[in-house]
Amino acid sequence: MKKILLAVSTVALLGLSVQASAGDVKVGKKIYDRAFGRGCGACHDISSNPQLIALIKSGDLTKASFSTTLKEGKNGMPKAVDAIMAVGPVKKAGLDEEQAIDAVWSYLAQ
Ligand code: HEC
Fold first, then answer.
1. Stretch 79-108: mean pLDDT, rounded?
2. Above 90 in pLDDT, residue 76?
3. Which of 31, 74, 84 to mutate to test the pocket of ligand 1 (most atoms within 8 A of CB)?
C-alpha cells in the first residue's frame, strides 16, 4: 500500500514539474517578445547581433554567461533584468529574477 501511494505521489509530482516548466517557456517567450517594449528580438533578430538560439545550441553561450550578461549588460547589450521584471506575465507568474532568467533561457534553449 505504501509503495502504491509513493508511486502515485511521484507521478503527481512529475506532472506538476512538467507543467511548471512548460509555463516558464511561455513566460520566456513573452519576455523575449516584450522586454524593453520591442522585445529582445528587436536587436537579436538582426543578423549582425548575437544569434542567441544558435549560440546556445552550439554550446558557445553558457547559462552562466547568459545570466551575467542580462544582469550586467555587455557593450551594446543593455542591462536587462529590470526590463525583464517589468514584463506583465513575469509579474503575474510571481517569478523572481533567477526564475525569469531561467524562463527566457528555457524558451531559447528548447
Ligand atoms: C538594444 C538592442 C538589444 C536589446 C533590446 C537586447 N540585446 Fe542582447 N545584445 C545586444 C548586442 C549589441 C549584443 C552584443 C554585445 C557584445 O558582445 O558586444 C548583445 C548580447 C547579448 C548576449 C550575450 C551574447 C554572447 O555571445 O555573449 C545575451 C545573452 C543577450 N544579448 C541576451 C538578450 C536578451 C535575453 C534580451 C531581451 C531581454 C536582449 N539581449 C535584448 C543588443 C541588444
1. 97
2. yes
3. 74
User: Side chain identity at 83, as an amino acid letter?
Assistant: A
Q: Is the pTM of this model over 0.90?
A: no
DSSP string, 58-98: HT-S-HHHHHHHHHH-BTTB---HHHHHTSHHHHHHT--HH
How buried is 80 (Cβ within 10 angstroms: 0-12 exposed, 13-18 middle, 19+ buried)?
Answer: buried
Q: What is the maximum span of the chain, computed from C-alpha positions, in angstroms? A: 61
**C-alpha grid cell, residue 96:** 523572481
Neighbours of 66 (CB within 10 A): 19
Looking at ligand 1, which residue's alpha carbon is closest to its atom 13?
77
Q: For residues 61-67, give the mean pLDDT.
A: 98
- Which residues are 77's β-sheet partners? 74
Taking 70 as the threshold, does the pLDDT of residue 90 lie above it? yes
Q: Is any atom of ligand 1 closer than 6 Å to the C-beta of 80?
A: yes
CB atoms within 10 A of CB 42: 13
